[in-house]
Amino acid sequence: PMLCPPLPWTSPHTGAFLLSPTKLMRSLEGTVQHQRLLDSCPPADLHGALDALTQLGNCAWRVNGRVLDLVLELFTAKGCPHLGVPAPASEAPRPPDGRLPPGASPAQKAEVRRELARCLKVAREMHSLRSDALYRLSLAQHLRHRVFWLPHNMDFRGRTYPCPPHFHHLGSDLARALLEFAQGRPLGARGLDWLKVHLVNLTGLKKRESLQARLAFADEVMKDILDSADRPMTGRKWWMQVDEPWQALACCMEIARAVRAPDPAAYVSHFPVHQDGSCNGLQHYAALGRDSVGAASVNLLPSDVPQDVYSGVAAQVEVFRRQDAKRGVGVAQVLEGFISRKVVKQTVMTVVYGVTRYGGRLQIERRLRELSDFP
């Protein structure tokens, strides 16, 4: 991260860091086709992309000190893998003790070898995760009382990413919870309501409910929210039981401060609210093609409850599966009861990013292998 605003992007090779050369478009080593196209593009055609990246890089950030203190407390103890804080190597599983008896069978020897390999693999993974977390937390501690900036560049699709690889706002739940905007804004008339809706979104408990239902749920659990903010490690620990625990905790603390302010509407908040598209690629296709059915399934048309395109596709696939099963297709008969939203989701999402038929087949195979009862 930079301690001053990044250089504005002025060409495919000029922008972002002051000293380190940075490419406008990240690509694999040795690939030249995209770079050649970029270099031959008239400069005026790139102004929109360059300005967008400059604008993203100009957003100033700071570290959320209260969350960082709690993470460091867990990290210096024995970690907590459930909350995304890796445990030290001392917590790794121990390989089996003792020597094998002289007459041990080949099967017993193979079992011991397998167990040794498993313990070694787990220990190496734990070391890697611990080192990564240590590096990220060291950066956060170093930047604790400073304002910093994250220069951005993009990939060949035009998706934008922060250049610093370890500490940024598109990381894991823990990494996101450690960051907040350096520049605050008053919450305004409905800001507190949106904070509550955001918290409920982070819990993952009301995915299919309307915004009003989510708001009502937040008011119902307000005691748990305030308890989480005041006594995160000693209270009822409601925040630990949700989908995105650290972001939820940071949001609980922000809601507590806003609720207790003399005027919540005037309370200046620095809290970032992340928002996600519903299968973003399909949203673009539906908008470009004026496709009203597609638009409804990816939430581009007004609706009281959120629509889910993946469930819709799974239902459509199930219709075809039943027809094939009646005709005696063996694969269709074996797949009965296994066509779920989770199985189709990755392939539906990547179809619009150019996944091949072969790649899509592998994705579905991987999802089916993850199911414990799939033959």
From TrEMBL:
Domain DNA-directed RNA polymerase N-terminal positions: 1-58
EC id: 2.7.7.6
Gene Ontology cellular component list: mitochondrial DNA-directed RNA polymerase complex
Gene3D superfamilies, sorted: 1.10.287.280, 5' to 3' exonuclease, C-terminal subdomain (1.10.150.20), DNA-directed RNA polymerase, N-terminal domain (1.10.1320.10)
SUPFAM superfamilies, alphabetized: DNA/RNA polymerases (SSF56672)
Record family assignment: Belongs to the phage and mitochondrial RNA polymerase family.
Name the UniProt record assigns to this protein: DNA-directed RNA polymerase
